[in-house]
Structures
1.
Amino acid sequence: MAFTTFATLILELTLTRIFSVVFFYHFAFLAISIALFGLGAGGVFYYVVAGWAGNVYWKLGGLAMLNSLAVIFALVFLLGVREPTGATLAMVFFASALPFFFSGAVVSVAVSEAIRRVGTVYFFDLLGAAAGCLALVPFLNRFGGPNTVLAASVLFAVSAAIWFHRAGSLSGRVGAVVLALLFVALIVYNGKQHLIDIRYAKGQPLPREIFVQWNSFSRIGLVHPPYDYGIVIDADAATSIATFDLEHLSPSQRYNLLYQGPGIPYVLRPAAKTLIIGPGGGWDVARALTSGSKDVTAVEINPIIARTIMQDRFPDLSHRLYFRPDVHVVIEDGRSFVRRSHEKYQVLQATLVDTWAATAAGAFALSENNLYTTDAFRDYLSHLTDDGLMVFTRWGFQPPRESLRLVSLAIDSLEQLGETQPWKHVIVVREDAEKLAGFGAQDTVIVFRKPLAGDDLGRISAALAEAPQLQLVYLPNERPKNEFGRLLEAPDPEVFWKNYAFDVSPVDDDRPFFFYTVQPRDLWAFVKKGGDAADAKVNRAVPVLFELLGVSLLATVVVLALPPLLLGTRLPVQKGERSFLLYFVCIGAGYILIQVALIQKFVLFLGHPTYALTVIIFSMLLSSGVGSYLSARWMGQAGNSRLLATLVGVAATVSALALLATPLNEVGVGWPLPVKMLVTACVIAPAGFLMGIPFPTGLSQLDSRFPRAVRWAWALNAAASVLGSAGAIFLAIYIGLRATMLVGAALYLAAGAVQWAQRKAMPTAHAGAEVSL
């Protein structure tokens, strides 16, 4: 059981990475729905397996061997799809679900055979999944995406060997071991020859790459197009390497560094003490050094970029830029670094920091989102000197969206710091304005800690006079009547945000979806018509999420149709059965909603999306496993009353987590990482422990009272989880992460209401049977 769930979790989370690379990062959470659908459908399929002749362990071994082969099939099919749309998307969904289907069948067979010890079996189920969570990061770092999927095939074959050993089948055990060894050999060969690898991404063939490496939240490739060396993230976002020899710059090179949009801050603050978030290939570092800076801190979240490419493998491409004594490279999430730093800077810069990459958390923890919130801007401003400035470069659109939302964040954060005239703190310049109608224009928003003085206004005017390629969009003393001017000088910004064509209102850490700019009133129209060229990536999530929700609904219908189609079993009609099944719907949806929100909530506290994924999922699975293991003892003779108390306890502990997560972020900002991980595990454990009790306890109760309905409990729990994984992102976007957690808590209360109703309606005979159970 543990090997099965170990392999299943590794496969599920690795698919989120592959989906992000091959398609778009919005697709990554589809892997979660796929896994839940497959597991649920496989759980129902158990009832077909139960009718087969033969030893139960032999049947489990056969299913596990089929699963190891299904993983290969699903991977080859997935890597052969260029871009999933319509029917192709459905084919990707169901082909990728095949391994999870077999996993679900194996798990349900094992649980059913040991229904009287379901707590113990469920414990090893969750223990294996927790181990898979811990193994995921080293597997991805060492093997890469496709080979980590192949490693799951090896693990499924190993589980088959164990099952055949229990069955006493020597031939089966030998066959499973041989299959596992063949897959190990395939991993070694594939690592060298790339037989099974990504060939197409985002609908296009991959360019020739001279270097490729994976980690848990990105696939990094180094390409050499006709002009510059480029670092490509997930076959999409790119940053070129600054190949300048800073000791021998030509006048034209110096001009190009300082008189582009991101270079203007260094004209205003030459030789500034600088903090750069997301330096990538080093362009902003080169700009700061060219202006005379002697203290540049570059905070890069991706070690493959900053260490492997820029320092270890290809340092000479940048003339060893990241080895200079005046450059301090830090591998960390930029926001987390700022929060724990005690330094103040004259320039704080982030240029086009948007990887569009889904983390292994399933696209729910996009690290760059936490960089662009009101809370983040308040942190940045608090780390500036009185003459300091922060500068952000984003894509320019017409009408403006991202850059205008930056201004909204500046207005909100400045007012929180007591600055009552935000319009005096902001400058906006635009580069490549001729590309505004399509894609490629860049807006640079400069926010000053204090109101602009006359000498700064003079410097910016002089700089723009030397840079005709830059267009002045907003300057306090000119007060233009464009969108930026209207927002900055609006007597009530709320009215502007409400009436503007796009949602550019400020976002905070509880709803950190900076890139999502569709107004709620325009949602359905956007889904029907799609966005214009400027929305190709920015709001692509909207129609994609609706498509995926549609596929998830289809998957839910399939799961619910399996019992009557495969088993000839209709939805139970006996009194109390249908309402009891609602209990499994509530806990299935509630668990996934809470888990998704917790992952995003703790990204900032732990400083990295990978840490949030590992610690949150591991803690929840392990503590839930312990709760499951002890569930029978916990229930004791009290039966239904203790289950009711447990469900209320889940709601209470989850609600406490929702309310305490933000204060914990503030208190623990300077703690060492091991302490943060330990504290996170400790605060998650009580809720996780209680959340591990309701499913096995409810399943035991259902089996004792309505045994025919157990198959429907599997199906409905899986269906609710599928829809919950798709619905979690919608809830987080529109009501925030805290509210999403509270919705999950409310679903556990709803499950408690079902239990209470069952208790009230239970006949005396059944009540006595339950006490006996």
2.
Amino acid sequence: MGTAVFFHAHPDDEAITTGGTMAKLAAEGHRVVLVTATCGELGAVPDGLLAPDETLAQRRAAELALACEALGVERLVFLGYHDSGMDGDPANDDPACFWRADVDEAAGRLAAVLEEEGAGVLTAYDAHGNYGHPDHIQVHRVGLRAGELAGTARVFMATTNRDHLLALTAVADELGLPMDEEQQEFIKELGVVAGEITTAVDVSDYLADKRRAMEAHASQIHDTSFFLSMPPEAFAAVWGTEWFIRVGANGDAPWEDSLFAGSGTGAGG
């Protein structure tokens, strides 16, 4: 069995993007470690959400702890950077925000975790950060650099299969998943085309764990949200496979079905 480190930008990103893979690896006996760059303190704050003197960062950290339980995470590490906000937000200019962090300095923090853990696998994001959020783009830069510094054998970019989602839009009504024009246009820029993907992990047996992790992030993912209001068939169609690009892989080779494929540490996600 091996150790996989999942690197994410904010609490809830782990559940949405790689939650099924994390739960699958944990169930198969691998050690799962989560590193989160920020506490997501610039997320939405619904009226009446916070207790007196409670901050959103505190609430989101508590939610992340619950999500980690659902996904079988054995260690959680915060890198300690400020949330950078969405692209164009004034917070992008905060010198303490993750977007403004020196890449080598931040990568050194992450590489220290990789070395402590003897990790054989690291996941970050694709070059666009899946959808262009500054902190997600920085996860890509910092994650890949950390993998270099630590000499991690298998480094992946978590992404979205754009072609798969576009195909689902054609049957969205049948799935009970109505999408407005804005959502369909968003999908056209999300993730990467199928030809860039190297690894597709079937997480259909772990969707209950993924959903519980999403539900744990109640401040950001409401039960009436697009994520949680889907009928079961639609939820399975959208989330039943998680997609990755392995750094240095031959893009013409058949898709791998495991982050540990060929590593000698056992089958699995």
